Please model this.
Amino acid sequence: MIKRGLKSNLAQDMIAFLASLYMRFVFWTSCWARFRFDIPLAYLQNQKPFITCFWHSRLLLLPYAWPGKKNTFFMLISAHKDGRIISKTVKHFGIETIAGSTQRGGMGALREMVRLSKQGKTVGITPDGPRGPRFQVSEGAVMAAYFSKADLIPVTYSVKHHKVLQTWDHFFLPSPFSRGIVMWGEPIAYPKTKDQIVDVRKKLKMALDNLNQKADAQVNR
Model:
């Protein structure tokens, strides 16, 4: 009965609205630091395409990491019901979405990402989404960079007070009235040839892991 109810648009709209309220509550009751926002801003000012990458577990407050204008940032979100709820949630923050995945039947989503990138839009990807394995970069995420000729820029956030849920991705649930940081990492050049894709996947995983560790260390000092 509950699962059936979650498929209704009304239920999904309500959950998305409540989630957006919680996100705002956490953000506005916490003290935040910002690190290396100059990196994405330089790309935006020079109209240079890039793809934003973050682990699925750090998805919740990523709307607050976007330094550009509203409706210029698109997130690749799964088309299943959980994905639809996420899509409805981020739209409260002026973020558009692409329904699909770089892993499962994702050629349509991949083509849409390339099209948007060529129009000067930025796309955000969870390289380990929508169902894992967690903290592993899918080939599709890097293929998107290859076809769109867009560099990959890692981003994350952390807060001192949080819970790690027992979900497949070890979802990071921030608590209000905390201390947090939003952190961008150094760009990773897109693969120029398909032979470079494996190497770029390794670089992106290392960059995302290191960025998470650095952000966690900053808020726990």
Remarks:
- Residues 62 and 156 are 7 Å apart (CA to CA).
- The chain has a mean pLDDT of 91.
- The first strand starts at residue 31 and ends at 35.
